[in-house]
Every structure is written in C-alpha cells, then in structure tokens.
Design brief:
Shape: globular
CATH topology: 434 Repressor (Amino-terminal Domain)
Strand content: under 5%
Radius of gyration: 12 Å
Helix content: 55-70%
Order of helices and strands: HHHHH
Mean pLDDT: 93
Largest sheet: none
Distance between the termini: 24 Å
Number of helices: 5
Length: 82
C-alpha cells in the first residue's frame, strides 16, 4: 500500500509549526531535547525518518503529548513539495 502524502514532510511541517507557536527556535529545541540542530532541521524539512524515541523527546521539550506531534493532515492533495 502506498500513501497519498509524504508523512515525513507533513510531520516536519507540523513539528515546525508547534515549535514556532511556542516562540522556540530550532537551536533551542535541539539544545533542550538533546538532539543535534542539524537533525531537528532535517526532520522539519522532511529529510529524516524520526524515531518514536525522538518524537517523545521533542514532545516533552515542547510540553505536549507525543500524539499531538502526529496530528498532521493526511488529506490527499496537500502540498508535500515544500
């Protein structure tokens, strides 16, 4: 089965939106979560397949439940090229 959307890009855009909504920089998110800034940047751009452990670390740093980071749109036709 193939997906109609790119979950890496959708997750990354959603993570970036969550981070920005809290006024947090990528650098601060990386520092506080213990992840490399380059890794966080790649995740936000949909270039890295983030692990469950790192989803939990990012969620804890953003003070949201891990499930919230997975609440991105799966509607077909949304732009996954950005």
């Amino acid at each position: 089965m193939e997906l109609d959307y790119d979950p890496l890009k959708r997750f990354g855009r959603h993570l970036a939106a969550q981070r920005r909504s809290q006024g947090m920089s990528q650098e601060r998110l990386a520092l506080e979560s213990g992840l490399a800034r380059s890794y966080v940047s790649a995740v936000e751009r949909g270039l890295r397949n983030v692990s469950l452990k790192n989803i939990c670390l990012l969620a804890e740093t953003l003070d949201v439940p891990p499930a919230r980071l997975l609440e991105f749109s799966t509607a077909p036709g949304a732009d996954d090229s950005a």
